[in-house]
Specification:
CATH architecture of one domain: Roll
Distance between the termini: 70 Å
Order of helices and strands: HEHEHEEHHHHE
Structural class: alpha/beta
Radius of gyration: 22 Å
Helix content: 40-55%
InterPro entries: TPM_dom (IPR007621)
Protein name: TPM domain-containing protein
Strand order of the largest sheet: 1-2-3-4-5
Pfam families: TPM_phosphatase (PF04536)
CATH class of one domain: Alpha Beta
CATH topology of one domain: Diaminopimelate Epimerase, Chain A, domain 1
Largest sheet: 5 strands, mixed
Keywords: Membrane, Signal, Transmembrane, Transmembrane helix
Number of helices: 7
Length: 264
């Protein structure tokens, strides 16, 4: 009787863990569905509203590459028709966290999010930039460089100016000749944000508990055997690596929602 009760208790714990994991995963999926897919390494712009010219996108990517390689920060620009039901601050923060904008361990990324139909803009920064870019300074940047252009329908000009001025605050030497930028990320390194690590770790624990309880470890032994015989996998390059003179991809940064927004 005691053994049966113990087994039932274990099963209840497993079920609770599985439900918790499913709820957490569902929240992440919903969050991911609300923002565009992360651009490839070396690109820092997603323009779903189609308001940026090819030259403007190239300019933003060039600024992003220099800033990235300096080791001082990373940037991302997202232009969409609408933020949907999300507040502008939440949307920008979701992009910052979901894409991992910023170097790992530094949280030095910033995201400029623009909704052309909503007529709203928000610039959010990672924890590591809050000292250089407080809310008041960000608001001043938007008032000076973004909003006047937006009111004239010149979205590209306003976005490029805002990105450039923000990048100069973070890295004053950006754009100067004879730079010797430091490559801050190894080309073959994949960085994970804290929530990705937490999700993966929780999934592994749940899998092991279920396997040991219901299958007495058979699934784990089978996977280990397959891994050993395959030699531990391939070693191909992922999308987070750098390469070919471009930026190295977003590095897993995060933030707490600092920033400012405006309407026009």
């Amino acid at each position: 009787m005691t053994r049966i009760m113990r087994k039932n208790s274990i099963l209840r714990i497993i079920m609770m863990l599985m439900v918790t994991a499913i709820v957490a995963l569902n929240a992440l999926v919903v969050q991911a569905a609300d923002i565009p897919a992360k651009p490839p390494a070396g690109q820092y712009v997603v323009d779903q509203s189609k308001v940026l010219s090819t030259k403007e996108i190239q300019t933003i990517n060039a600024i992003g590459t220099q800033l990235d390689r300096s080791g001082k920060g990373q940037l991302a620009v997202v232009v969409v028709p609408s933020f949907g039901d999300a507040a502008p601050s939440d949307y920008a923060l979701n992009v910052l966290r979901g894409w991992g904008v910023g170097h790992s361990g530094k949280d030095d990324g910033f995201v400029l999010a623009v909704a052309t139909e909503d007529k709203k803009i928000f610039l959010t920064v990672g924890y590591g930039l809050e000292g250089d870019l407080n809310d008041a300074k960000i608001g001043q940047l938007l008032d000076t460089y973004a909003i006047p252009s937006f009111r004239q329908g010149e979205y590209g000009a306003g976005i490029v100016r805002t990105v450039w001025q923000t990048a100069q605050i973070i890295y004053p030497d950006i754009g100067k000749k004879n730079q010797n930028p430091q490559q801050t990320q190894d080309d073959n390194t994949i960085e994970l944000s804290w929530w990705q690590i937490l999700l993966i770790g929780g999934g592994i624990i749940i899998f092991l508990l279920i396997d040991m309880t219901l299958f007495r470890g058979e699934l784990t032994r089978m996977l280990l055997t397959m891994f050993i015989f395959r030699g531990g996998g391939g070693g191909g390059r992922g999308g987070f690596g750098g390469g070919s003179g471009r930026g190295g991809g977003f590095g897993g940064g995060s933030g707490g929602g600092g920033g400012a927004g405006r309407g026009w």
